[in-house]
Amino acid sequence: MVNHLADPPIVVALDVPNAEEAIRLAKATLGAVGGFKIGLELLMGPGPGLVGVLNQLGQPVFVDAKLHDIPHTVERAAKQLGMAGARWVTAHAAGGPGMLEAAVEGLDAGARGRSAGILAITVLTSLNDAILAHSGVPVTAGKLTSKRTRLAADAGVEGVVCSVKELGVINDVAASLAKVTPGIRPDGFDAGDQERVATPEEAIRRGSSLLVIGRPITRAADPRAAAEAIATSLQGITAPAHPGSHKTRD
User: Fold this and answer.
1) Residue 66 appears among annotated catalytic residues
2) Taking the domain 10-234, which CATH number applies?
3) Predicted TM-score (pTM) of this structure
4) What pLDDT, in 10s, does the model give residues 125-164?
């Protein structure tokens, strides 16, 4: 059985340009989702102080900072986000084991005893095998996810961010890690700039611990109703008791 990180296992991605709109969407979906995600746009705008404001609503805040720098810099950045109140912070597994370990240490120091964890980004869901090859990466998304997951697990992260398509790879390599999946699109919703997408139901069925959902909720005429509909669709769906052995194509 998958241990979901929130109830419902949905984090709404507040990918909007200002704090006012982010807070409005957060309040509109409060109770219909399990947490809120802020990304680079908001971090570069209103800044980390928004984490504390959202925390006052009583749900966890996922800071998608995508940290990727030398270990010392990442440690200090993660500490600042921990002090701001982040429950989860992302860091690129491509930064290497030393950088991920520094991120874990920094976030833990900043959280000061409060639950907080680093989520290692394996391969962005906007990438596919062809794009990776064109970028000079001579392996498939599945193989790269496997390698980076082993590295992340050894570094002590709480979980990984991956495509639903690679959940089987994660379970084969490090089943105990939390599995956070962006690129979630309900049936009939345009994939947009995502390459490796899946429906909410498929994600939960294949073992996702937490779904990151943005546009299908935030761009809906009624964001709360959209979130509630997705949460309802997930009721009664469980992952296999022993997930894994769903290897992606090499």
Assistant:
1) yes
2) 3.20.20.70
3) 0.90
4) 888 899 999 999 999 999 999 999 999 999 999 999 999 9
Q: What are phi and psi of 2, to 5 degrees?
A: -80, 135
CB–CB of 82/113 below 8 Å?
A: no
Nearest CA-CA partner of 216 in 249, 194, 238 = 194
DSSP 182: -
**Residue 244 burial (10 A CB sphere; 0-12, 13-18, 19+):** middle
**Domain residue limits, the chain:** 10-234
| Runs of H (alpha helix) within the chain | 19-29, 40-43, 49-55, 71-84, 97-111, 129-134, 141-155, 167-174, 200-205, 215-218, 223-234
Select from 105, 138, 240 the least CA-distant residue to 147.
Answer: 138
Both structure tokens of 150: 């082993």
Q: How far is CA 174 from CA 25, 34, 103, 139, 140, in A?
A: 34, 24, 19, 20, 19
Q: Name the nearest CA neighbour of 178 among 35, 2, 33, 1.
A: 2
Q: Position of tokens 């109770």?
A: 31
Q: Of 27, 66, 143, 165, which one is the catalytic site residue?
A: 66
